[in-house]
Specification:
alpha+beta
Amino acid sequence: MFDINDDLRKIENTNFFSKMGINNINDDRVILIENLDKAFLNHSDKDFQGKYNKLRWLPSSISQEDPFYKKQKNTPELLNLRKCINKKILNATRDMNKELFIIPPHDFSLAARDSICFCFRQLMTERYLQLGQKWEFIAELYYLGHYPIGYIDNKIVAI
């Protein structure tokens, strides 16, 4: 079993989305995109290492399926963990700078917030059921201040 308190403390001390646009990750498992515009509106295949057509978006809605694991039955304990982490993420991102996510006329702030919530809820499921480390890696990118938006093959695409 894991201790959710470690994550709760880490969330309190993280400035989410603060490193978007900063190329500070040297990891072959990550494709860093320069900014929101290049990620969502004016993308070039080159930015996505020539594989934009293979890009799969990470979920940004509670109704979407987990792309990595089959749907699992949630125990009351797991539901409580998921609710707790979701509340903490919502609190941590409540006052985020929404201007970082606006490219007129588009506002990606709600999608960003919903995406991070989805990730951390799935992280709780992944750990609780010992499914693997897919969401663990994505959560680490959030902790580093980036915005994971999708995946191509075994690489995570992040801003």
